[in-house]
Amino acid sequence: MNFRLYRDLLAIVPVRRVLLVGMLARFPHAAAGVLLTLHVVLTLDKGYAAAGAVAAVVTIGIAVGAPWRGRRVDNVGLRKALIPSVISEAVIWSVAPHVSYEWLLVLALIGGLFTLPVFSVVRQSLGVLAAGEKRRTAFTLDSIATEIVFMGGPAVGAVLATSISTVVGLTLVGISTAAAGVFLMWFNPPTRSAADGAVPPHDVEAATAAVVTAAPAHLREPAAELTQAAGAAADAADPANSGGLLRRAAAGFSWMTVSVAVVFVVAAGAGLLLASTDVGIVALVESSGDPGKLGIVFAVWCAASLVGGLLYGAMTRRISPMLLLLAMAVLTLPMSFATDTLSLALLSIPGGLLCAPVLSAASERVADLVTEERRGEAMGWYGSALTTGTAIGAPLAGAAIDTIGPWSGFAFAGAAAAMMALLTLGTRAMVIRRRIRV
């Protein structure tokens, strides 16, 4: 391990600024989840199921909008791409607290679609500003910063909701996020290298050629084969018309290889594991009759992730995100044996140590596999995969808890994530064997 990597990286002023802006921009949304739940339950006098529906709608909006927002950054630049998000964040979350539940669902969906793409922008910029071992450390620092934000954000949201009002809290979320977006536009962190030789986005075929040529050797053939196959199929169907459309569609996803898809599955597995564990912690602590100690378990879990991230970021060798996810899934299973708050907090440490490393390794892999011309869109899809896993994991774990008991949430989380990790390992092994035969 080389902890000097942190010092060297933080000595780069743009890197420090990107990490700081990322923390500031994420903090309002870290508080928004608790505020939305308490607004539906307390202010609108609905149940937790209704609150969960609002959270699900926001999640769907984010999952659908993230790739589109990332592609806008690739095509028109950061400043122009962020304008719709800045406006919508300020308007929607200032109006949402004053409408009925039905309209809140609509606004939540729109708000999710236009959410400020902090995750993809920060990771895309760090991928440009740092390379090699520094890139791993940069992504780890961002994961650690995120852990710190989510240790404090929900607590601030709860204080605002109970001490002042959820209306004021949600309005502050919108204004604060919009302000962070304006600051991000002013700072304008790089999303491409200064000499990347990017091809104008309107020239689709030329852009495709540039992406394939610039890609690493092991990615060129799959990308070229995908484009050629799509073109041939299009010409056979209708050379005069549909061929060009299909070629453009293939060109737009020339960066999507089997290796990239595997990383997205890992991201979905990580999201499922984290969300399911989250629900399991809440259920087990509440069933113990002492919900006031819930914050202790989350603090220990997040602190373990922070420590694991620091250690991983100082490592001088790469570890596969698939192996990290598998290890995290297996280490989450013992949480099923917890009997009280203390034992649950202690059993959360092993799995928690791998939270930040899994996300950092997956982000690093995407940055390595996808060229800068399409990295914003790729990071958007990566965020969507993570969000999709979260949206799937929470309700399924909840169903298992309602049917069997609190302990089953951890069993479901570990087993499902382990299966996804094994699936990706098997897929990668098949691809490697196929390449060797060819």
Descriptive account of the structure:
Residues 245-438 form the Major facilitator superfamily (MFS) profile domain. It is a multi-pass membrane protein. Keywords: Membrane, Transmembrane, Transmembrane helix. It holds the Pfam family MFS_1. It is found in: Cell membrane. The protein is mainly alpha-helical. It folds into 3 domains: 1-189, Growth Hormone, Chain: A, CATH 1.20.1250; 201-215 and 255-438, MFS general substrate transporter like domains (Growth Hormone, Chain: A), CATH 1.20.1250.20; 216-252, no CATH class. It is 82% helix and 0% strand. It contains 18 helices and no strands. α3 (48-76) packs parallel to α5 (101-113), α9 (204-214) runs parallel beside α11 and α12 packs antiparallel against α18 (407-437). The longest helix is centred in the middle third of the chain and has 32 residues, at 133-164. The protein is globular. The two termini are 38 Å apart.
